[in-house]
Amino acid sequence: MFGFDVSSFKLYLPPLAVFAACSLVLWLTHWLLIRRKGGGLSSIRGQLVLLSLTLIAVILVVLALPVGEATKSDLLSLLGLVFTGIFALSSTTFVSNAMAGFMLRSVKSFRHGDFIRVGEHFGRVTVNSLFHTEIQSQERDLITLPNLYLATNPLTVVRSSGTFTSCEVSLGYDVAWHKVEPLLKLATQEAGLDEPFVQIMTLGDFSIVYKTGGICSDVNQLLTQRTRLKKAVLDQLHSAGIEIVSPSFMNQRQLSAEQVFRAIPQYAKRKNDTESSPEAKIFDKAEKVVKIRTMLDDVARLKAKIEEDALFLEDADKEQKAQIKLRIIEADERIKALENIIEKARENQQKEDNERP
């Protein structure tokens, strides 16, 4: 009753073998193109290859089934309808995000590690994939944004060569602007910013809003520079006897007319400032991505240098050939060392991503 039919089992050996082989190929492809490379620039290529291989694997399994040609044709037609329906239903987001990803890569408006602002989101780019872009926010959180969102919203990229950073402060009409302006410029210089400026933003009913700032050359210290600027503004205004309170300020305590509301400034030596920078901890993943990108640029530069030296090798004399060969060997060893570091960094990054909930 429960006898084992060997002939029926042999019929299913080919599809089982094809299924096992396709599963093995897909697993190896996933490990090599995505897990081993740790995402980054190769993730887009890996996702496309993995999707194509999955479609081919499904077709091969159907072709290996022990059924008639008519049945196989019907199954392939059914699969075609299923995939067509899936793509038709998801084309609004799937294809749109893919096209937006290609557009962002062709425009090249930002790179890994750049500060960007889109909508209410601000942070450093850690992943630029085919369908999404990941940024690390000021709270150290990782935010995943669809590429369609970046393509349809105004995108602000902080220039790596430097950007203006500023802060605003409101003062009463009893303080003359020609007294405030030099103090704010001095505060900007004390904060380590270049090309200081002061603007009057608003003439309110009770106060004047001033805006002061300058160029921050090191964008990696953007958050620290903003804090330093606000500290310097407080120190300069308080040391000049200027209260940063609205004229409508009222306190129920009985105080003398000589009482002022300001803290006694304590100046610190900016050059020897030992205050720890929060950017290294906030944008830790972005910093790692930037280091990997820098090493990849070094590898490309060294390879180009090797090719250039190889062209001069044929026409060089004996002494020059020895020097060129030595440079090629040193560059090749440096490339191997950098590639080893990059591979380990990507593996560590992939482990950290897998540990994320």
Instruction: Note poorly predicted spans.
Output: 38-42
Strand order of the biggest β-sheet: 4-3-2-1-5
Strand content: 15-25%
- What's the CATH first level of the largest domain? Alpha Beta
Q: Radius of gyration from the CA trace?
A: 31 Å
Major sheet description: 5 strands, antiparallel
Shape: flat
Q: Give the total of domains.
A: 4
Order of helices and strands: HHHHHEEEEHEEHEEHHHH
As a percent range, the share of helical residues equals 55-70%
Number of strands: 8
Count of separate DSSP helical elements: 11
Beginning-to-end CA distance, first to last residue:
50 Å
Mean pLDDT: 77
Fill in the CATH topology of the largest domain: Alpha-Beta Plaits
| Structural class estimated from helices and strands | alpha+beta
Per CATH, the architecture of the largest domain is 2-Layer Sandwich
